Structure to design on (268 residues):
């Protein structure tokens, strides 16, 4: 009897087959990698996501994470908490954002919002995507490796799918270089995590910040042991206001579908 699903979970072909009268899967999030959208399509089931309503929130968090990594904000806070300020000054941060060049891996809805914030920080922006993005004038690089060569901060904001899987690999990280900073706010699957851990351990890159990991919420001991890695529990969009806007869009998609037969934000 179920004709519509609102979800924040994995929806695979078995799940879909268990609901023979399903018409619409309204997924809570802009990334819909957890939904087997190709299978849904083959069954003429529509899939919707929640684009745009979270762009600024995720971009804000990205800049917060970048600053946290480079200027050691979480560590400095822990230093005060442990009452160590009374004993000594906090050490100067080895890294700075000044005079850096920032590369965005992905220049979509959220990437553009991140780029505008980076510009406001006075830093040049370059990017890689499969084709040049319409309406932006930032330097475009046709490969991720060429982008990594040209920048010393790399921010990943691409979807998690087969085309991006483990693309931030040992080559990309070593090209980014020993002053390099890597930030991931896209999906954990985009990164070869073993290569990232090795690069952070060896000083192949300087530091990294992850809002997403491949096997959430299971953070490996190897990751937790790294002083130069800051990990957030996938909170890019996680404010009450933005998550409410996302939930409203899920509901509005379902209502529109059942009232008019046209969803508001179907995935491509
Ligand atoms: P979007 O508007 O679809 O932008 C995606 C960008 O990635 C485009 O520039 C696209 O350009 C590029 N891209 C896709 N596949 C690529 C590939 N194989 N190689 C190079 N570039 C590729 O998506 P969005 O709304 O900005 O969201 C992006 C992703 O962020 C989501 O899919 C989700 O996984 C993630 N996200 C995370 C959080 C969080 O809480 N951390 C929150 C929201 C979203 P081309 O198609 O031209 O290549
Ligand atoms: C959410 C996200 O955390 O929209 C996305 O793609 O990754 C985040 O906004 C998630 O989808 C909701 O669980």
């Amino acid at each position: 009897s179920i004709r519509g699903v609102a979800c924040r979970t994995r929806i695979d072909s078995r799940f879909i087959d268990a609901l023979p009268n399903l018409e619409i899967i309204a997924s809570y999030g802009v990334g819909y990698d957890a939904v087997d959208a190709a299978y849904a399509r083959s069954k003429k089931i529509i899939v919707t996501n929640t684009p745009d309503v979270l762009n600024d929130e995720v971009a804000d968090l990205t800049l917060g994470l970048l600053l946290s990594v480079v200027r050691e904000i979480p560590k400095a806070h822990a230093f005060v908490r442990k009452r160590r300020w009374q004993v000594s000054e906090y050490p100067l941060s080895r890294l700075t954002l000044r005079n850096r060049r920032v590369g965005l891996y992905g220049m979509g809805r959220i990437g553009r919002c991140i780029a505008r914030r980076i510009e406001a920080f006075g830093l040049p922006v370059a990017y890689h995507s499969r084709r040049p993005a319409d309406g932006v004038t930032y330097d475009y690089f046709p490969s991720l490796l060429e982008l990594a060569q040209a920048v010393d901060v790399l921010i990943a904001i691409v979807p998690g799918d087969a085309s991006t899987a483990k693309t931030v690999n040992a080559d990309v990280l070593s090209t980014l270089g020993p002053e390099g900073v890597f930030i991931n706010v896209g999906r954990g699957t985009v990164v070869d995590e073993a290569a990232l851990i090795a690069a952070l351990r060896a000083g192949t890159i300087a530091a990294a910040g992850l809002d997403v990991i491949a096997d959430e919420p299971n953070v490996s001991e190897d990751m937790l042991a790294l002083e130069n890695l800051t990990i957030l529990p996938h909170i890019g969009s996680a404010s009450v206001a933005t998550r409410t806007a996302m939930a409203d869009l899920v509901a509005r998609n379902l209502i529109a579908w059942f009232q008019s037969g046209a969803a508001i934000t179907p995935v491509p």
